[in-house]
């Protein structure tokens, strides 16, 4: 049975449609699995036992009557606990919202429910999404399924761990500096950050209005395609082309910029990422060097925007009750207190200039996508980074922040494991609304490496071995 928990959404949807398993039975078994593994992983803040069963019963009745809403119909999905779910508490990983019960669904939750997804629970996160490790001072740290001593990444670490450990068939995360892509890479799954504003942020506690993105976290690239179709703002789906698929990468030009993206990398991880680049070339892609200027200034501008906007949102509560925040979150908010209006405005101008320069370079070099590592050094041990240093974690662990500054779609795809059996991912960034191209490249690569089969057959053993659970 355990291999079923590591199946992809496509396979589960087929089993449900053929009535080889019921949504109720699947949900019940998954809830049992969550109960078994939660003491080890702490991936969830709230498990929606009763609501999930009720949803599954409703979806099962519709399926038996011949009504199938989407490939997500009756499939249990996890939600980062930063989205409002009607009738359920939404903590945002904080004690401040510990008892907050929402009277509405976030836009993306409504779309998922309309598609027939079963919301099975709300996953752990770094407090208010302000960190890259998911070491939550209020609800405890989430642990990486591949090594329980290690962080899963963040801030969507609970979502990544839940999918990687077979505790959900997909999950929703947020990404402001890499909070979908970094934990996805560290936990060995796929993470997609769509184009800015393609997925509505209404009903999601903000971190930075300028940089926040919402996207799917899944076991395969094809599953990200399934979830994105459901999650995308219906008014903007006409901007996407998600239906065309490719058999190879002939004609695709992949740009690499050694500066920043490949600097200060763990050498073992660099070899793994470079091996995936060679595979992309073997599949037909042309790899070219592309110069990107102004990266350092752009990253500094991003930090200013992020800390200024996060402080602005939290200022009333933080001014009155700073003690209710965790130590690293206090440090982050204090760093945004003294940002001046001119600093913020200049940073916004710097961002706009950088977006133009990157797109100009991609056009000049006829570059379809940019390639880089996702995680560039191994996952930290839990508790190894003091609160005052945690503000830099996202910039040290990965090469994801630039994707948020640009607002361009980006995806991370598993590409191997270190000698210590820790996952490594590579990142692709494309132009606005070219998610279809990212998914195409990812699916061709994934198929060539047989990742879907590997994840189903190997993760079921390796992940549970790491957690000392019988497979």
TrEMBL record:
Q: Please indicate which superkingdom the organism of origin belongs to.
A: Bacteria
- Residues in domain Amidase? 25-439
Membrane-spanning intervals of the chain: none
User: From the Swiss-Prot or TrEMBL record, what is one GO molecular function term?
Assistant: transferase activity
Q: Note whether Transferase occurs among the keywords.
A: yes
Keyword RNA-binding recorded: no
Task: Name the InterPro entries on file.
Answer: Amidase (IPR000120), Amidase_CS (IPR020556), Amidase_dom (IPR023631), AS_sf (IPR036928)
Q: What is the lineage of its organism?
A: Bacteria, Bacillati, Bacillota, Bacilli, Bacillales
UniProt xrefs under Pfam families: Amidase (PF01425)
Q: What is this protein called?
A: Asp-tRNA(Asn)/Glu-tRNA(Gln) amidotransferase subunit GatA
Recorded family membership = Belongs to the amidase family.
Gene that encodes the chain:
gatA
């Amino acid at each position: 049975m355990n291999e079923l928990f590591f199946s992809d959404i496509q396979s589960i949807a087929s089993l449900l449609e053929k009535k080889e398993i019921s949504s109720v039975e699947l949900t019940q078994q998954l809830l049992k699995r969550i109960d078994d593994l939660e003491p080890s992983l702490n991936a969830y803040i709230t498990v929606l036992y009763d609501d999930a069963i009720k949803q599954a019963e409703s979806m099962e009745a519709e399926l038996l009557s011949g009504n199938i809403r989407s490939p997500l119909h009756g499939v249990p999905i996890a939600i980062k606990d930063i989205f409002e779910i009607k009738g359920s508490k939404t903590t945002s990983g904080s004690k401040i919202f510990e008892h907050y019960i929402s009277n509405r669904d976030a836009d993306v939750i409504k779309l998922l429910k309309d598609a027939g997804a079963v919301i099975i629970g709300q996953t752990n996160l770094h407090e208010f999404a302000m960190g890259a490790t998911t070491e939550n001072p209020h609800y405890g740290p989430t642990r990486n399924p591949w090594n329980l001593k290690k962080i899963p990444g963040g801030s969507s670490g609970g979502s990544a761990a839940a999918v990687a450990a077979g505790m959900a068939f997909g999950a929703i995360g947020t990404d402001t500096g890499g909070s979908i892509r970094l934990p996805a890479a560290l936990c060995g799954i796929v993470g997609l950050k769509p184009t800015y504003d393609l997925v509505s942020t209404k009903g999601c506690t903000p971190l930075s209005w300028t940089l926040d993105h919402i996207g799917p976290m899944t076991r395969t690239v094809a599953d990200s395609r399934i979830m994105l179709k459901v999650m995308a703002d219906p008014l903007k789906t006409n901007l996407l082309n998600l239906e065309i698929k490719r058999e190879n990468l002939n004609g695709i030009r992949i740009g690499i910029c050694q500066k920043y993206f490949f600097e200060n990398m763990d050498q073992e991880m660099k070899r793994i990422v470079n091996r995936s680049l060679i595979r992309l070339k073997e599949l037909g892609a042309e790899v070219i060097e592309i110069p990107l200027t102004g990266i350092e200034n752009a990253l500094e501008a991003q930090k200013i925007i992020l800390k200024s906007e996060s402080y602005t949102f939290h200022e009333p509560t933080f001014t009155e009750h700073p003690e209710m925040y965790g130590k690293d979150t206090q440090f982050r908010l204090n760093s945004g207190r003294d940002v001046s209006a001119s600093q913020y405005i200049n940073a916004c101008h710097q961002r706009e200039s950088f977006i133009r320069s990157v797109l100009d370079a991609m056009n000049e070099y006829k570059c379809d996508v940019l390639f880089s590592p996702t995680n560039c050094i191994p996952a930290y041990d839990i508790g190894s980074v003091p609160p005052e240093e945690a503000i830099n974690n996202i910039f040290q662990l990965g090469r994801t922040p630039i994707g948020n500054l640009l607002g361009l779609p980006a995806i991370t795809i598993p590409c191997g494991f270190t000698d210590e059996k820790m996952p490594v991912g590579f990142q692709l960034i494309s132009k606005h609304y070219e998610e279809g191209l990212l998914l195409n490249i990812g699916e061709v690569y994934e198929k060539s490496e047989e990742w879907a089969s590997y994840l189903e057959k190997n993760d079921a053993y390796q992940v549970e071995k790491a957690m000392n659970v019988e497979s």
